[in-house]
Amino acid sequence: MTTSVLSVSARDTGCLTDISRALDSATPGDTVAVRPGVYREAPLFRRDVVLVAEDGPGTVTIEVPTGGAILAAGGEILIQDIAIRGGDERMPLFQVAAGRVRLEACTIDATAPAAIHVRGGAVAMRGGAISNTGGAGIVHEAGAGEYTGVRVHDIAKYAILASGRSAPVFRECTLTGIAEAALLAVGASAPRLESCRIDEVGQYAVVAQQAARPYLDGTTVLGGEVGLLASDEAAPVLERCEILDTRVHAVVTMAQSAPALSDTLIIRARGHGLDCRGTSRPKLTNCEVRDCGAAGVVVNDAAAPHLTRGAVAACADAGVFLTGRSEARLDGVEVRDVPIGVAIEQEAAPQLHSLSIEGVRYGLHATGGAGRFSDGQVTGARAAGAKLADSAATVLSNSRLTGCRLGVEVAGTARPTLSSVAVEDSGGPGVVTGGPSAVTLSRSRISGSRGPGIRAGAGSSVTATDCEIVGNQGPGVVVETDAPVRLRGGVVRGNGGVAVDAPSPTAAVELSDVDTGHNGRPISLPVPGSGRPDAPAAGGAPGSVPAPTGGAGPGVAPPGNPSGTRAPRPAPSGVGPPGPTVPADGGPGPGAGAPGDGLPSAGAPSAGTPGGGGAGGGGEADGPVAALLRELDGLVGLAGVKHEVATLVGLNQIAKRRREAGLHVPPMSRHLVFAGPPGTGKTTVARIFARILATLGVLSSGQLVEVSRSDLVAEHVGGTAVKTTARFEEALGGVLFIDEAYTLSTGGGSGGHDFGREAIDTLVKLMEDHRDEVVVVVAGYTPNMRTFLAANPGLESRFARTIQFDSYSDDELAEIVERLCRAHHYALEYETRQALVRHFGEMARNETFGNARVARQVFEDMLGRQAYRLSSTPQASDLELARLLPEDLGEQAAGPSAPAGVAQAVQDLLGRLNSMVGLDAVKREVTDVIDLIASTEARTRAGLPTPTISRHLVFAGPPGTGKTSVARLYGQLLSAMGVLRTGQLVEVSRADLVGEYVGHTAVKTTDVFNRARGGVLFIDEAYALTGQGNDFGREAIDTLVKLMEDHRDDIVVIAAGYTGDMRRFLANNAGLASRFSRQIPFESYTASELVSILQTLARDGGFEFSNDSIPLLSEHFDSLARDETFGNGRYARQLLERTITKQANRLRGAAAPTIEEMRQLYAADVRAALAA
Predict the structure, then answer these.
(1) Is 972 within a domain?
(2) Dist. CA 555–CA 564, nearest whole Å
(3) Same structural domain, 859 and 1004
(4) Which residue of 278, 430, 617, 1095 sits 20 to 30 Å from the alpha carbon of 906, by its own alpha carbon?
(5) Number of folded domains that form the chain
(6) CATH code, domain with 829
(7) pLDDT interval class at 328 (50, 70, 90)
(8) Quick one: 1052 and 1134 in the same domain?
(9) Could you report the per-residue pLDDT of 1100-1130, keeping only the tens digit for each?
């Protein structure tokens, strides 16, 4: 096949004058050689072709005009040495739909949503550069892509956006000067970056969301707020990468993400190196985290990271900080040169295996939680090898603590277990205990301490079984407590002082089969009978002191070789061991249950015993039920919910007492509907309610099984019943909590078999079959839950009670943030709390508002801003580190906007209003209203009296005259002035307000009204609410009037419709006319205005009316009758659609229409459209 070379030049004779014409003329395989110049056009590639700059790079520029884009629609395409620039804010600059495109040494400089958009075909780009001040750099949603040595720079949004199942590859590329994210991977995409560099990023370097699987190999990330952010179910992979100098955290994992990092360096993050949240499960293998401004690794919520080998070093805070309900696993990790090696708080339960910790103040510091530290080593801790305090229940096994100031320090109510632990060469005591703590040691060795081997401080108890306490410079054991100290088996030998020194006459020391020979002095125990009347003498026999044994008891581990015997699993928090020791005051012993754990406290009267108040002590003021109700009452807000739950508890208690008295107990449905927006504590309340019912004996176990549609519904016939039954049976004895239950009745859509309804039918039958074995709680948005209950005739009767969860108030949201601050040891200044209330007050509220989730997000954002604020103050005091200031809420929330900024925003919005076609009277009226409101606000700020002004409006006139657009601008204007919180527009009609039965309308109208609060409620064709007789529309009007009065400063209502009908609407209710005191007339457009509208609509769609068609359009519009039913702008849009259709009919016979032919709408097309 012969190929040709076509020359293009804007100046030279004998050449084609534009590239598009050359591409149309080219046959497959031809070369289009372009001579120097700027070519203002948007080429279309449809066949095999080579497009090349004849004189090399920098000589040819394709400038794409507004409204245009370059499109590759097929063929093998090579573009070489060409510069491309320009674009349109509504479409990507270079679009690849099909074919294979190769770009060699090209530059793309866009002002468009994307510089390159690949939705099919393939792209290969080598060398060159891409920039875009209007949006993203490269967007891949399908097709293939390979980019080598490309520089992506100065991007307004994302350098790379991968979606769908796309998997573009980037090798040796540089991504720099990116405003938002360098790589955003969503959907099931799997972009690949090899040997790339990312720097100068405004926010995130790499973001992986949904089910994305990005892969980075040998890539360096420098700067940005966060190096890697993984959320949803994303699973990014990083190998041999570097994440350096991030301004906040280096790696953040959220939700159910599961990133995998190997051989990766994380260095100099100003915040944390790794921040794990949600239920994320990151895996780090042989990675190094060092020189971070806060903790190296932070694990919160229920996250479960797994770190294998590698190191955490030289961080300003803890090396590893574990809190929440996290379950971290660390294997073979080195932690060095940090204040605290590993910190454990709240309910964290880590598995710490083979850790090496050195250069620290504390090796292990636990103030809560449990977990296990095994086969590890702590060397040279300046304060303590391990400090276990408060409620810690940590297990230390097969580990060595060497050369620490204190080996193990136990305080508070901690209940640690030490099994086969070697504590060597401590600067003070080997093990020191205090407070009401209780430590259990077995098969452990304490040697070489400069003080005593064990110092049992006041209030603490110690049990040591088969332990070696040898070669310490002080006594073997010093007993300063009246609580029991038990030494069973083992050796206490070769110590500088006495074997056991218990100077207090009230000490309760028990020695059994212990070798206490060869110590500095004989044993010193209290005189028998001189202590407490109820204190047992040593050995447990009244009045006797056992003689020290001469040899080691059975089972003692050899010196220096602690046994690997596994320690027994510690008891769950709040549940004491059997037979707790009773102290002298007769109070609850160490095993006493914590209030609110759903179980009787140890030592308290059990169910059925005198004083027990029945099962669970539910009738007592201090019983478990009362404790659980106090826990519920401690939640922020939810007053109505608390009352409802307390009522249900009372009903169940009375039913129980009637049953015990032999009286008839009427049947009572225990299943509940929790209705309300998200983040209002529905799951938390359900969990407490389940524990209450278990305590009352109504349920056997009280566990909560939380499910959603995906847990119940299968994708094939018969599978749904199986899945639903399995989860239901899992909940037997407890509570089945179905979140977003309404999706079971709506998830199937209108076509095909809806398996959600099968799940509902199965649930109804199971609830009947197991009516006394389970409680089902369904939760979701209020209106959706009514639809759900109507989906099956049996549902409504089984869910007889609905508990309404209302959104939190601004003050309650601020209190939630305040509690989060207290929980994490931060302090809110008074001004900060006030700014928080203002901040929440300015947020848009609708039924999807996240409430407490939003509060947590605000809290986390504040911590990020505080970290950034203090990053420039390395010597900040502890007080400054704990304080959150108003500026940590962000510039907008910290205080009122600058007056100049407000004035400019108002002028910009008024400019948009004035740029609309026609509507001169409307513009004057709206401007007058805005000026009046601004004047009133100014008088109020100055303390002057102000008249009462109604901001509600009536928009009267024919359809299609821009009423909705003007309403939206009006809301934005009031928001910019600070009169409305958000200014969003909620557009409704009669169907959205009027219900189908008595009482339904008020509920629907209230829901819609609340959704619009803070903004504008726009009621189109409002006159339709005025019906006859008992029409429910009147109920909607009455409800609206009351709500407008109750929330007069929080919303603007605009009622729209035909002029005559709106007059009748206002006369329908006495309160309406006074609330809608201003009516703005919308006149029909003139002929010239309609022509202008039509031309604008055409240009927006990529069309242009020819000059000869304009008089024809003007004449047609002039001939139309302008009554109230005339469609105005809508009619113009319909005419445009008909004209475009007629143009398509005309072009159908054309072999290959040009771009210009596809854009032009001629007079013939208009005539055909008018005749249709």
Answers:
(1) yes
(2) 12
(3) no
(4) 1095
(5) 6
(6) 1.10.8.60
(7) very high
(8) no
(9) 888 888 888 888 888 888 888 777 677 778 8
Domain boundary residue, one of 354, 382, 399:
354
* Whether the predicted pLDDT of 722 surpasses 90: no
pLDDT tens for 3-45 read 789 999 988 888 988 999 999 888 999 999 999 999 999 999 9
| Torsion sign (Cα): 1137, 1143, 1146, 1150 | negative
Q: What is the pLDDT of residue 855?
A: 86
pLDDT in tens, 882-913: 888 888 887 554 444 445 556 677 777 787 88
- Sign, CA dihedral 83-88-94-98, equals negative
Q: Residue 191: inside a domain, yes or no?
A: no
The verdict on 928 and 905 lying in the same domain is yes
CA distance 380 to 418: 19
In terms of domains, do 334 and 479 share one?
no
- Residue 835 is part of which domain span? 810-869+879-889
Torsion of CA 789, 792, 797, 803, to 10 degrees: -20
* CA separation for the pair 710, 715 (Å, rounded): 10
Q: Cite the beta strand spans of 443-493 per DSSP E.
A: 445-447, 454-456, 461-470, 477-479, 484-493
Report pTM.
Answer: 0.51
Based on the fold, state whether residues 906 and 1048 are members of the same structural domain. yes
- What does the alpha-carbon distance between residue 368 and residue 388 come to, in Å, rounded to a whole number? 8
What is the mean pLDDT of the segment spanning 922-931? 80
The answer to the question of residue 609 being in a domain is no
Question: Quick one: which of 475, 376, 490, 370 has its CA closest to 432?
Answer: 475
681 and 715, same structural domain? Answer: yes
* Predicted pLDDT at 752: 44
- Angstrom CA distances, 480 to 97, 410, 436, 856, 1003, stand at 82, 14, 12, 45, 68
Does an H or E element contain 747, and which?
none
Burial of 877 from C-beta contacts in 10 A (0-12 / 13-18 / 19+): exposed
Q: Are strands 334-344 and 1104-1105 parallel, antiparallel or unpaired?
A: unpaired
- β pairing state of 297-299 and 158-162: unpaired
Residue 1070: band (very low, low, confident or very high) from pLDDT cuts 50, 70, 90: low
At 1059, phi and psi to the nearest 5? -60, -55
Contact 606, 612 (CB under 8 A): yes
Q: Are residues 715 and 652 in the same domain?
A: yes
Inter-axis angle of helices 624-633 and 682-695, nearest 10: 170
Is 651 domain-assigned? yes
Among candidate residues 1016, 1049, 1081, the one where a domain is terminated: 1081
Q: Please give the Cα distance from 478 to 519 (Å, whole number).
A: 13
Q: Could you give the CA distance from residue 631 to residue 653 in angstroms, rounded to a whole number?
A: 18
Instruction: Give the DSSP H/E element, type plus range, for residue 1133.
Output: helix 1129-1147
Contacts of 1048 (CB under 8 A, 6+ apart): none
Which residue in the block uniquely carries the two structure tokens 């079971």?
A: 744
Measured distance CA(464)–CA(443) in Å, rounded: 8
Claim to verify: residue 1044 and residue 976 sit in the same structural domain: yes
Give exposure, 408-430, as e/b (b: 16+ Cβ within 10 Å).
bbbbbbbbbbbbbbbbbbbebbb
What are the E-state strand segments in 759-892?
Answer: 775-780, 801-804, 827-828, 883-884
Phi (first) and psi of residue 592, to 5 degrees:
-60, 135
C-alpha to C-alpha distance for 977 and 954, rounded to whole angstroms: 21
CATH of the domain at 715: 3.40.50.300
Other CB atoms within 10 A of residue 752 CB = 7
Confidence category of residue 840, pLDDT binned at 50, 70, 90: confident
Residue 220's DSSP bridge partners are: 197, 242
When pLDDT is cut at 50, 70 and 90, the band that residue 523 belongs to is: low
3-state secondary structure of 760: helix
Q: How far is CA 270 from CA 246, 275, 566, in A?
A: 6, 12, 40
